[in-house]
């Protein structure tokens, strides 16, 4: 039986397609998105890996403290994924893998905080608009919803205009039960808000060291912010941090 041999041109085209696919896979491998159920078993749309955080920089902690300001004017550029990952790591990243201890201290190492990121416009390079939850152990983002919620978040935050103008908003929520089980009411009234303060200061100082702009926002309607990030009823939002590049 005669089998028609593929033409030289067909072979060359097939080889070229294979080479281009391998190169694209190598180049965009770091941006690969996987579907998972998240670290805590909650349903997520997809998981997005973040670049490994840097553990050194040219800015000393003293310089970051001296220069830190609440900055409410933002540039129009998107954040790099590296920058967002660094901020989240500074606030709640795992810094000791063997124990799970994190960048910010926690009463009884019970870690009641959950960080959400509202990615809108200008957003983050290579990330779709939506709400993401930070997964500290794997240093990943879990997308929990799609679409830009920054304008609604601004309305929930008593219409403070910089909430929408920022590239992203980082929302610090707390699951009080994780702490009250051991420390009771003192845990809810004192320890959990203190921990939000620790995480928030780390965010401020990391933003300063990266040359970014942020401000801690405490004025907002709790239930509206909770609904916008899709947090369950047992989580309370404590802080909103709009973050962006500095305005020129
Ligand atoms: C608990 C808390 C809540 C805050 N809430 C808001 C807020 O809702 N809106 C705002 O513009 N700034 C807010 N700020 C930022 C303060 O206005 C700011 O820290 C203060 O003006 C001092 O300026 P500095 O941070 O540059 O030192 C808040 C700060 C803290 C500590």
In short:
This protein has 248 residues and is an alpha+beta fold. Helix content is 37%, strand content 21%.
Word description of this protein:
The protein starts with 7 loop residues before the first helix and ends with a strand. The protein has helices spanning 8-28, 61-67, 81-92, 150-156, 162-165, 177-209, 222-229; strands spanning 46-49, 94-96, 101-102, 113-119, 130-135, 140-146, 168-175, 212-214, 235-245. Mean pLDDT is 91; it is low at 26-34. It has seven helices and nine strands, in the order αβααβββββααβαβαβ. The strands form two sheets. Strands 1-6-5-4-7-9-8 form a seven-stranded antiparallel β-sheet. A two-stranded antiparallel ribbon has the order 2-3. The radius of gyration is 21 Å and the shape is globular. β2 (94-96) and β3 (101-102) form a beta hairpin. It has a single domain (32-245), classed as NADH Oxidase (3-Layer(aba) Sandwich). α2 (61-67) packs across α6 (177-209) and α3 (81-92) packs across α6. It is of the alpha+beta class and 248 residues long. Residues 69-70, 72, 160, 215-219 line the site of flavin mononucleotide.
Strand fraction: 15-25%
What profile does the largest beta sheet have? 7 strands, antiparallel
CATH topology: NADH Oxidase
Helix content: 25-40%
Number of helices: 7
Provide the CATH architecture.
Answer: 3-Layer(aba) Sandwich
Question: Secondary-structure element sequence?
Answer: HEHHEEEEEHHEHEHE
Radius of gyration: 21 Å
Q: Provide the CATH top-level class.
A: Alpha Beta
Low-pLDDT stretches are 26-34
Structural class: alpha+beta
